Amino acid sequence: MSARIIPVVKRKQIIELSDSGKRTDGRSLTDYRNIEIIIGDIDKAEGSATVILGGTRVTAGVKFEIGDPFPDTPNEGVMQVSAEFVPFASPEFEPGKPDETAVELARVVDRGLRESKMLDTSKLCIEPGKRVWICHVDLYILDHCGNLIDTAALAGLCALLSAKMPEAKVKGDTVELTGKKLPMPFSGIVPINVTLAKIGDKLFADPSFEEEEVLDCRLSVAFMQKGDDEKSLMLCAMQKGEAGYMTIEEVTRAVELAKLKSQELRSLVSSKVNING
Amino acid sequence: MATEKLISDDGIRNDGRKIDELREIKFDIGVLKNTDGSAYVEWGRTKILVGVMGPRESHPKHLALADKARIDAFYRMASFSVEEWKSPAPSRRETELSKVIREALSPAVFTEYFPRTSIDIFIEVLQADGSTRCAAISAASLALVDAGIPMRDLVASIAVGKVDGQLVLDVQDKEDKEGESDMPMAYMPSKNAVTLLQMDGQITQEEFARSIDMLKKGCLEVYRLQRDAIEAHFKVSESSNEEA
């Protein structure tokens, strides 16, 4: 409980600094921390990436498995995102089943990737109605210094974009793996998630751990774009989180800011990995 | 999958509603005997019961907060509430919805009046036909009122979807499943406070701006129905104070 006293003091300091457009770590309100992207660091995975945003570190791996299609989409493969909060990433994380924070994070990242339709899941079908590829995108939170959602979304996106899928051939009743790797069925669309924190009456891009401790709420917005066509920028997912609120005007401002930041992050991603697969 | 149109050429949806028309919404307050507050809502075919327990001793104790009440929400769908039998064990979706519903209601409650206690909001979706989180939040606000818990405002909630390329208010199940997007919002009108906002599906920036407008209007309409329900429930048997 005493842990709650310090944030109250910190919050005052963060709000006072923000009145002159500054933050405790020297950034401006709209700056992201330094971003490092490492592609393909796990070579046993079909695709992988590690993203280090400030001190936050997430490794994402893509693995394929043969499984059953969902009854309502018999001719489509499945993409499934999950998140593991590794206990050494934060003293607040405990071993065990993913808690609500981990579930929310996985589902927010999942929505951004899925709703953008960057991946054509109908091409992940092996035998219609019987066997499909299940594409697991697993996000491992390894170090938590704030803004897990954007870090994990970038890691998941880069891992997916770097992935190759195994080739499977149907032989009678069985499926044979040829050992060949095929390019992934991408559409060229890249969704980018941007999270803004509201503290007092200001919006903060890429909140740090200490900013997250004192925020009112956050809004994550995913913008998708096909190729270089800026007019094709569309929203594909949103999530407000934490117990405070934003006014309608703040929501509109946050979406506008998220759009700008998504462009920066998108060009960073495309400098690291071929966004057309 | 059928390619049947969800909106007719003269702008009528497959359940007979206009683009910006709400389903029939009926709130009932104080329907349960063993809770501190409760509410029931029928929102089209969506049927939800909400029970509030608390403020009461926090359980487990170590989770109690020194300066305010702890709010918890439990969103659960009955196994028979949907087309195919659903396992009663909470799914990832229910876990996430419980979290965002709690966060949508928390800003409305004067939690600082009840330090070290907890307020538990139990939501049982008996039948699901789209927009269950919106119906649950709107009904839960009324259950909190029924429990006598001081609040800054009611939280009203509604969703806008994109169906056949058009924006529609108050998304029902078929529109949610076959439509192109779903965007629920919860709103406290007197504070101009957006307490829940989610979206999935693809919308342009212009559609986003229009959705926000429709959501605000829709929430105000739900808000009016909530207030009517409160008035109907708490109407004292007529006495001197009647206005002429």
So, the CATH homologous superfamily of chain A?
GHMP Kinase, N-terminal domain
- Tally of alpha and pi helices of chain A: 5
CATH class of chain A: Alpha Beta
Please report which band the strand proportion of chain A falls in: under 5%, 5-15%, 15-25%, 25-35%, 35-45% or over 45%: 35-45%
Largest sheet of chain B: 5 strands, mixed
Can you put this structure into words, describing what you see?
The complex is a heterodimer of chains A (about 280) and B (about 240). Chain A is α+β, with helices and mostly antiparallel strands and about 280 residues long. Chain A has a single domain, classed as GHMP Kinase, N-terminal domain (Ribosomal Protein S5, domain 2, 2-Layer Sandwich), CATH 3.30.230. Chain A is about 25% helix and about 35% strand. In chain A, the strands form three sheets. In chain A, strands 1, 2, 3, 4, 5 and 6 form a six-stranded mixed β-sheet that branches. In chain A, strands 10-9-11-12 form a four-stranded antiparallel β-sheet, with helices on both faces. In chain A, helix 2 (about 100-115) crosses helix 3 (about 150-160). In chain A, about 45% of the residues are buried. Chain B is α+β, with helices and mostly antiparallel strands and about 240 residues long. Chain B has a single domain, classed as 2-Layer Sandwich (Ribosomal Protein S5, domain 2). In chain B, a hairpin with a 4-residue loop joins strand 8 and strand 9. Chain B starts with about 25 loop residues before the first strand and ends in a 10-residue tail after the last helix. The chains are: A alpha+beta (about 280), B alpha+beta (about 240). The interface between A and B is large, with 38 and 37 residues.
Descriptive labels:
heterodimer, A: 277 residues, alpha+beta, Ribosomal Protein S5, domain 2, six-stranded mixed sheet, four-stranded antiparallel sheet, 5 helices, 13 strands, B: 244 residues, five-stranded mixed sheet, 4 helices, 9 strands, globular
